[in-house]
Each structure stands twice: as structure tokens, then as C-alpha cells.
Amino acid sequence: MFENVRVILAENDPLNLGMLEQMLQQFECTLIKAGNGQEVIDAISAHPQVDLVVMDLNMPVLDGYEVLRRIKQDVHWHDIPVVMATADGEEVAAVLELGANDFLAKPFNLCELRHRVMNQIRNKRLADFASNTNAVLEMEVAKRTAALQQALARALQSEYEISLRLGRAAEFRDQETGSHLKCISQLSKRLAQLARIPGEECDLLYFASLLHDVGKIGIPDAILLKPGKLLPDEFETMKEHTVIGGKIMSGARDYPVIEAGRIIALQHHEKWDGTGYPYGLKGEEIHIFARVVSIVDVFDALLTERVYKRAFTVEETTAIMMDESGKAFDPQLLELFFEHVDEFLALQGRIHADAVSVASITDIIR
């Protein structure tokens, strides 16, 4: 009927014990006898895969109440069915309240005894089957989840590689500024982390910031590579790199990195006070990604030599950028950035100490 059934039997009365043994033999079970309550606990400890405990309420050392309480309060044992044998009707309610699964009224009725025991063993086996099935399902879910996470990681890596190579397309046009792509990527992610932007968005920014200047592909060399300050009409043409970048990455809302890159490309030259380009966005109208990138982009550009400028010192860079707090830059983000400037300098890794004259942001970042 059932295979490998294990039953712990604790009964003081020899006559009742004989009846229980005779009945349990019908199930071809392994019978584990216990002479007192402590032996019941010891037997369960030694045989955790028990299918049923049949126990007299009145036992020495530990009575049935205490044994039942310990079984039902133990996280590893509470699912073991316990059938209590008692001759007192008032005791039935007490043991059921403590968690007993069933009771046997003395004197025993063999037919009733057989059915009650059989029901409890059946219920235990069904519960074990359900538990094992759930465990198998959980393992399968874990495997599939791990596989999905690996696939997502590969997809993100692919997006990163595509973004990096698309960003490098601008590098071939503007080799002296394109080399800072990875630096902008790392600094942007770190500033976002310090600003307590959610982790997934920090990773997204890490990828998307690579695309901030991709629109420079569409700017003529005579303007893009011109040493010195641009003429007004040349500067108007230079401004178009934001719109060009936005157009290159338009229509990709199903691809988070490209969509974030589009927003950054369009907005990273917007200014906190509304005097930026191309749309004159103001304050928090500017996406947080673009506000982050604008800070690290300017920071890296000021410290780096370009065809139209020498490298600025750290002190000069700090002074210029802090002067633009609340004008070009989000003041809270900028303050946070300079609270951790040593960390950013370490990440940026290219500190220049050349003494240069103070210049405006417009003259430095075109």
C-alpha cells in the first residue's frame, strides 16, 4: 500500500501496544518503539523522515503534551502527523489545540484505528510529494532565472559594445575629445551612485553616456577641428550636434540604452538656468542623466588639452565649475561632485597643472 513507511509508536499499556503493533504490521512499516516521551524525541532526531507518530498521552519522563508541543514548534518536525491515544474526552480538545493531527479513543476500535492511521500516512505522503515537487520546481525556476540573467547580461554587454562603437564613430571625427568616452562613462555612473539613483539606472547611464557626443558625426571638420574660438555662425552649427545625435537615436524606445543616449545627446548642453541649447530647458526639466553627464563632461574637458585650449589645473577647473553652480549646473549635483572630487580625479586619471587664463564655459565646451 505504502512503501518505506516509518512509524514511531509510544504506548504504555502492553495490551494496547499489542493491538497497535498488529494493526501497523498491515502497512509493512518500519516500527520504532519508544518507552517514554524523551525516547519519542530521540527517535525523531535519529529518523527525521518519520511518516507518523502514534503516542499515548500519559507517558513518563516527558508526557504527551510536552512531546506534542516540541514536535509542532520545531521548524523541521512540525509537518510530522501526530495521533494521540487517550481515554479522556476532555483531553482530546487540548491535544487538538496543541496541533495533534488526530486522536485515538481508548479502548481502540481496530477498524477506526486502521482508517485514522491510513489517512494520516496518506496525508503525509501527499504533503511530502507536494514539498518535493515544489523543491524541484524551485530548482527549475532558479536554473531558468540564472539563464535569463545571463542572457540579460549578454544583452546589456551587447548594448554597451554597440554604444561604445557608435560613440567611437564620433572619435574618428574628433579624436582629441572622443578618447574620453570611457572616462565619462565611469564618472557618470559614480556620480549617479552618489546621488542615490537606483542601481539599474546607474548601469543604464554607464552605457548611455557613451553616446552623448555621437551627433558630432554630422558637424563639418572645419568647425569641429577648428583651433581657437568659433565664430557665432560656426557655434550655431556646432550646437546642431545635440539635435543630430537625437535624430540618430530616435525611434528606439524599446531599447533603453539607445533611448537614454538620445535624451543625453539632446540635453547635455542644456543649463540649469535655462540658457543652454538646443531647447532652453531649465532646472529639473533637464533629465537627471543629462545633468550628471554635463558635469563630468565639462570636468574632463577642462582638465584635458584640446585643439582649441590647453589643459586647466584642478584649482582652475574647480573655480570655473563652482562659478557656474545654479547657472550651467544643477547646484546640488555639483556640490556632491566636488565633495568627492578626489575620487573623481582618481577615476579621471589625467590631472594637468598648466596655468591658463580663466575662460567661459562657452569658450571651453562647444
Task: Please provide a written account of the structure.
There is one protein chain. This protein has 366 residues and is of the alpha/beta class. The chain has a five-stranded parallel beta sheet, with helices on both faces. The radius of gyration is 38 Å and the shape is rod-shaped. About 3% of the residues have low confidence. Keywords: Phosphoprotein.
Helix % is 55-70%
Determine Rg (CA atoms, Å): 38 Å
How much of the sequence is in beta strands?
Answer: 5-15%
* Number of continuous helical runs: 16
What overall geometry do the principal axes of the alpha carbons give?
A: rod-shaped
Mean pLDDT, all residues: 81
- Assembly type of the chains comes to single chain
CATH architecture of the largest domain: Orthogonal Bundle
State the name of the first-level CATH class of the largest domain. Answer: Mainly Alpha
CATH fold call of the largest domain:
Hypothetical protein af1432
Q: Which sequence of SSEs, written as H and E, runs from N to C?
A: EHEHEHEHEHHHHHHHHHHHH
Could you name the CATH homologous superfamily of the largest domain? Hypothetical protein af1432
Give the tally of structural domains. 2
Biggest sheet: strands side by side, in what order? 2-1-3-4-5
The largest sheet, given as strand count, sense and whether it forms a barrel, is: 5 strands, parallel
How many beta-strand elements?
Answer: 5
Give a short synopsis of this structure:
By secondary structure, the chain is α/β, with parallel strands linked by helices. It is 58% helix and 6% strand.
